[in-house]
């Protein structure tokens, strides 16, 4: 290397050293006890500056008081309990110097040593603890006697847990002797030696359940191949508790005494034998469900009598039954069979879950109810439907046990035997679907499952050979409060001095207990006086009298429980009628009734059948003796020699220019009737003074109609008869003409005897 290159390198080195000296820290910081100190101890922190400057010292950014003319500044620290950072710096130089000091504990004595060997030929893993977390770095070391290795080390975790894994170098080793050591900057501890028998610390590998086969009451577990002699099975039903079974089986494990149609969970673990080795870890969970069986337990059945249906002589009952629990159902219940036996007849019907009741109407009958699943049905539960007699045996007031149950007691009825069975049933008011019941053989019962702020009713029924005897229960509750809502009043009717008011029921969820009474408040708007009227529950109407005519009021209603009065419902403002208004309203009602009656009569008279019957009744009121025109004085005066009777109609009004036609009336005997027909012979006269006798070949024979209509001849008469017969077939259809507008006699001009005919059969009908 040339001299020029050497001199260049020397100059560069000098520059580097100068730069390094200038770039170093201006101070150094130290602790009297080091960077790790005992938790809560006292120590001194010192800072030495390398040049003159304005000196500052901080602990976690909090500045201490310093001596600016000294190169060394010291601070005495007391009771340090957390990690702290101490720093020093010159105000002229922003680069600080500092130290981190961590408080902690020395390690405790190693304890709770556990060593496990994975399989017979695996490594050994040991774990131990030091009692507490040292909060500073602590080293764990394990030494094996006879092993040339100096030691197997690890670092203790934050929970004070140490571990170490090492191999077994000699296959002839039967025992394991180890020593433990833990140490940190504050101290060191050792324990041992600890001796283990290798065969006792062998832990088998985790077994595996391949699959599970189940019947209705047992399951077979198939596991993987293993050489262990002892196996433990852990199994649990849904929502149940773990059960254990130990067996020497190697592969097929049989778990018996299981419940049908239940999902089970299974775990297995294994061990070399009862005295040697450790249990393996539990296998992964395996689930399997047992098969169904036909239920073999009867249902619990009860009934309540319902009101009889209209127009029926049978009695109606509501049949209730309880669901079978999972173990008794032995499968999913698909339906319920209900069989009614009545007077040697059998009627069957089905009910499907979740329904648990059925309405039945019968007379002197019994009922059988059974549950059905996919494998069969349960034995039928027979119950005889008999109307209970309200015997009135004394019930004691219920006693509160807690927020969900009460105690009930009663006196034994006189008819009850020593082993009389009692059925106590209860349900929320208005919700018979929520019925529950229990059976007891003594005169006390605890009613459970009650909801707070709910009102219940029910009964106690004594079952005896002479028939059921019942005592009703009302007003069962645990604790309650005042109603949350008030009734809504509605005016039913009112007069000048009184009125009737009704109000709605409060929803069950708003009652907050058992209602006892209602209070009706009435406020006079004129003087604001308030009166109140109490009405016992369950009545929901009241008649209020003593009101002033023509006065306005405001009304509201509240409800009460034993806990107090609830809020009022909506207001009902109203005014009473004055005396004149009430009289006018009565007159209007009477006039309306009369008008309605007239309209009804008018509608009735629109029917032709009614008209005909009314006309017949009126004709029947006429005299039964009808005078015969042929025997009149006028007819006898003008009788000729041939026996003909001639009647001459003289003009009665001299002012008429034309003289009327002369009509000759001939009396002709009719042998088929007791009266005679009057035949008219009409012929136009050529002279007003001459009277002509019409010959038999020139006259037209007509008869007087009972309806007063003019007949135009035999052909028209036949048509009228056919039309009348046709109308008689539809005589109940309304007539197109009003009976009040139809004339009694139809005329087409002058009324003469030739346009009148009398049918004597109508008179005969009247007689």
Describe this entry's structure for a reader.
The protein is mostly beta strands and 767 residues long. The chain folds into seven domains: 24-104, Immunoglobulin-like, CATH 2.60.40; 111-201, Immunoglobulin-like, CATH 2.60.40.10; 205-289, Immunoglobulin-like (Sandwich); 301-384, Sandwich (Immunoglobulin-like), CATH 2.60.40.10; 389-476, Sandwich (Immunoglobulin-like), CATH 2.60.40; 489-580, Immunoglobulin-like (Sandwich), CATH 2.60.40; 622-767, no CATH class. 13% of the residues lie in helices and 38% in strands. The protein has a five-stranded mixed beta sheet, with no helix packed on it. Strands 26, 27, 29, 30 and 31 form a five-stranded antiparallel beta sheet that branches. The radius of gyration is 60 Å and the shape is flat.
Percent of residues in helices: 10-25%
| Beta-strand percent range | 35-45%
Question: Structural class, judged by helices and strands?
Answer: mainly beta
Number of DSSP strand runs: 49
Shape: flat
Number of domains: 7
User: For the CA atoms, what is the radius of gyration?
Assistant: 60 Å
Name some characteristics of this structure:
about 775 residues, mainly beta, Immunoglobulin-like, five-stranded mixed beta sheet, five-stranded antiparallel beta sheet, about 15% helix, about 40% strand, disordered N terminus, disordered C terminus
